[in-house]
Amino acid sequence: MSDAANSYPGERLGFPSTGPGSIARVGRRIAALAIDWAAAVVISIAFFEYDSLATLSVFAVVQILFIPTLGGSPGHRILGMRVVLLNGAWIGMWRPIVRTLLLVLVIPAVIWDPDQRGLHDKSVGAVLIRA
Description:
The protein is mainly alpha-helical. It has helices at 26-48, 52-70, 74-78, 94-104, 107-110, 119-122; strands at residues 81-85, 126-130. 50% of the residues lie in helices and 8% in strands. The protein has a two-stranded antiparallel ribbon with strand order 1-2. The longest helix is centred in the N-terminal third of the chain and has 23 residues, at 26-48. 27% of the residues are buried.
């Protein structure tokens, strides 16, 4: 392993520095979040009179349903990312629920480790990678 000045996100976890399988970078993550939130807003406007709790609920349901079935939210998949477990196993159903609950709290999602994994991902043993 190289020293901290030469390392890249995901190196100590065994992920490549770039390309497929590398850690998804901040720009893609924010763009995916914006896509998912925009979709939740559109659904909230169409069906719930743009109620803020409904918007948050729609956002959460989309995360919980799509991560275990498609490997990521619509925003993740559109931008070429996947949520995977560190050990390569199926993410299951409880992990997306816990991950999403922490994501909607915001703070766990904006506290990252050197591998650019938010606490919401670390808590369930997941990582967001480029597909």
